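Lab meeting, item 3. Inverse folding demo.
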């Protein structure tokens, strides 16, 4: 049996002329964030959050820019960003619907909440609608066990969720999607 490998050494990274880690962000991070850490590597998660908050996700180019800014290897930045569920390495919809699947939410039948989201959005967990309006995910734990089954619609917690309450929150959020600083980009090649 032959080994199958991906040609990661020849992978083409979509690029754009404007940086994701803008000069203004670099200045703010240097002034406000880096002084809180003993090493620049210690600021990695905070820096990734800053970039994702601005753009809504973390393109490959942004990961390289963060690596250069902090003096790290791109692989170290990728390892961190790909480890945590809170980071997005693909564009996500302008409205994020996250259903908790922790043990507490499982006991409280989180599957009926996911099924209600499937029916309302026409999506499976992990999918984004073609128009870029919605992404549906299941996450390991939202830390809201006292309100199981729990969900997040964008950054709003939905506690003791029912199919009706999650549908109501999706309707409300779709009318007022969150704003990312420079607009939401759905393609990686911009």
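The presenter then showed the designed sequence:
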């Amino acid at each position: 049996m032959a080994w199958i490998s991906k040609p990661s050494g020849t992978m083409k990274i979509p690029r754009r002329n404007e940086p994701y880690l803008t000069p203004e962000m670099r200045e703010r991070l240097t002034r406000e964030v880096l002084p809180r850490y003993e090493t620049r590597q210690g600021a990695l998660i905070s820096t990734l959050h800053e970039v994702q908050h601005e753009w809504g996700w973390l393109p490959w180019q942004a990961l390289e820019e963060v690596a250069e800014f902090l003096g790290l290897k791109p692989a170290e930045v990728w390892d961190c960003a790909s480890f945590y569920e809170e980071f997005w390495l693909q564009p996500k919809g302008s409205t994020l619907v996250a259903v908790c699947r922790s043990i507490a939410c499982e006991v409280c039948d989180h599957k009926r909440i996911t099924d209600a989201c499937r029916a309302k959005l026409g999506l499976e967990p992990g999918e984004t609608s073609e128009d870029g309006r919605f992404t549906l995910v299941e996450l390991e734990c939202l830390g809201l066990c006292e309100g199981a089954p729990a969900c997040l619609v964008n950054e709003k917690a939905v506690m003791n969720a029912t199919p009706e309450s999650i549908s109501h929150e999706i309707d409300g959020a779709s009318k007022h999607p969150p704003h990312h600083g420079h607009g939401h980009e759905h393609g990686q090649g911009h």
